[in-house]
């Protein structure tokens, strides 16, 4: 079938366009395939009215139903507002070359509609520029779903022949297999450039309040609610012993200058995604991908062996939850920790990065060993039954957990001591080593340094909120 979007006739044709089309429209010359005409892009935009339209609410209700699998196609005049969130630099250059300022275009209502219906393909045409966005993930009630490919079609100037320039493509052919007939595995496939959903709106009524320095059991949910009356009703109170393995007292020994101590004024609490008794989870500044997180002790501990038995248990539980999160997104986890004892400044943080499952994750060990060799590092395997606190007890080390031979399995590797540089001198393991390996595994070498990936605070908040929403189902 063919969908024709936009005005089909031009006043400049002197009625020639109408004459050419009228036998088709009158049914005298039936087209070879069904054709649907969308007379959009005129003086009045439909999506401006969409916000109040009951259709949007109906779409939301339908898509919130259990078992909703998504729509095959969404055709809209306008782009969704916020489409540019998470785009790589090359896309901004492409858009700029096509004279489109992505942040200035798009409709909020179309973005909401796309979030609600979760189309596999979303076509829009209002900007008159051909543009294919890297696919983005959708989230449903059961976690990650298929991706959406947003495609903006170019403009066919009235009366002109079809432009040869590929960047001005105005027609797009698609061999589309309906979602209802697709295998789950095929639906969950992701390309390496997949981003998180750019549209998920922040609910202004839903705020997170962190409360510290309270002894467990001292304060009831009602008392807290009275304290935070202005914030509205409280939910998900870990301290009230309601959820998961979280909750409890947090010591007030946070170092004032430490970025990671939960009680430190330096802590950027909008990045915190989950808090348990002794361990918390936060997004790093300039993460590699939206699912990149850190597993960090609440109080100032320098190495894994300093964790209490309970702290180590929580860290491992967070690893398990993160693994479930990864598997739900078609990924596998890569954990790494670099420990270089310093005069008390270092605060333990285990990096957790989702790696697309498949060849990339199977080859992770080989890549890490070969990258290590370049830096004079040698890795030993840590047996599955070895106690991690005892293993990581002495000296500097670089420790990693990588995908094993089958999906969901792991291999634990450790390099002890520093590394030997080209001149034969012993040095510390390079600060960037783990992140470099992860960036290569993600085929994103350009994102190896966090400074190249830092986001404005508003986007950090949005990204953390999206992660929290997906991660809480795996706790
Ligand atoms: Zn600290």
Automatic annotation (TrEMBL):
Database matches in Pfam families: CwfJ_C_1 (PF04677), CwfJ_C_2 (PF04676)
Residue ranges annotated for the Cwf19-like C-terminal domain, each copy included: 257-361
GO molecular function: RNA lariat debranching enzyme activator activity
Domain of life: Eukaryota
Domain named Cwf19-like protein C-terminal: residues: 380-472
Gene3D superfamilies registered for this protein in UniProt: HIT-like (3.30.428.10)
GO biological process, one term: mRNA splicing, via spliceosome
Gene Ontology, cellular component aspect: post-mRNA release spliceosomal complex
InterPro entries for the chain: Cwf19-like, Cwf19-like_C_dom-1, Cwf19-like_C_dom-2, HIT-like_sf
Residues annotated as signal peptide: none
Protein's UniProt name: Cwf19-like C-terminal domain-containing protein
Organism: Ectocarpus siliculosus
């Amino acid at each position: 079938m063919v969908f024709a979007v936009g005005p089909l006739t031009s006043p400049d044709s002197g009625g020639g366009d109408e004459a050419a089309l009228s036998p088709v429209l009158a049914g005298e010359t039936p087209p070879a395939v069904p054709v649907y005409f969308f007379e959009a892009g005129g003086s009045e935009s439909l999506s401006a009215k969409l916000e109040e339209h009951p259709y949007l609410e109906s779409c939301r209700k339908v898509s919130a139903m259990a078992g909703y699998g998504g729509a095959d196609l969404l055709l809209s005049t306008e782009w969704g507002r916020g489409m540019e969130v998470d785009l790589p630099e090359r896309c901004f250059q492409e858009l700029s070359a096509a004279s489109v300022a992505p942040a200035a275009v798009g409709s909020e209502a179309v973005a909401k509609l796309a979030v609600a219906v979760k189309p596999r393909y979303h076509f829009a045409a209002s900007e008159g520029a051909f543009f294919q966005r890297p696919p983005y993930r959708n989230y449903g009630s059961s976690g990650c779903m298929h991706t959406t490919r947003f495609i903006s079609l170019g403009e066919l100037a009235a009366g002109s022949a079809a432009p040869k320039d590929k960047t001005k493509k105005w027609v797009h052919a698609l061999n589309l297999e309906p979602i209802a007939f697709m295998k789950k595995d095929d639906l969950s496939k992701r390309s390496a450039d997949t981003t998180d959903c750019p549209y998920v709106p922040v609910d202004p009524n839903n705020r997170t309040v962190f409360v510290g320095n309270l002894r467990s059991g001292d304060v009831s949910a009602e008392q807290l609610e009275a304290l935070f009356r202005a914030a509205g009703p409280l939910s998900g109170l870990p301290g009230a012993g309601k959820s998961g393995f979280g909750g409890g007292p947090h010591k007030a020994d946070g170092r004032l200058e430490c970025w990671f101590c939960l009680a430190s004024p330096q802590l950027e609490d909008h990045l915190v995604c989950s808090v348990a008794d002794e361990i918390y989870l936060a997004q790093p500044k300039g993460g590699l991908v939206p699912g990149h997180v850190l597993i960090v002790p609440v109080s100032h501990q320098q190495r894994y062996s300093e964790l209490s038995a309970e702290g180590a248990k929580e860290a491992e539980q967070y690893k398990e939850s993160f693994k479930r999160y990864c598997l739900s997104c078609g990924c596998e986890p890569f954990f790494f920790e670099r420990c270089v004892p310093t005069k008390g400044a270092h605060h333990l943080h285990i990096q957790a990065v989702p790696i697309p499952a498949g060849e990339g994750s199977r080859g992770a060990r080989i890549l890490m060993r070969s990258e290590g060799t370049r830096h004079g590092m040698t890795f030993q395997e840590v047996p599955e039954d070895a106690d991690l606190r005892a293993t990581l007890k002495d000296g500097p080390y670089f420790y990693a957990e990588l995908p094993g031979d089958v999906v969901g399995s792991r291999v634990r590797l450790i390099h002890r001591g520093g590394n030997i540089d080209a001149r034969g001198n012993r040095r510390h393991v390079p600060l960037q080593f783990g992140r470099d390996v992860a960036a290569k595994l993600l085929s994103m070498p350009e994102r190896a340094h966090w400074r190249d990936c830092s986001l404005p605070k508003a986007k950090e908040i949005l990204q953390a909120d999206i992660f929290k929403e997906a991660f809480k189902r795996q706790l």
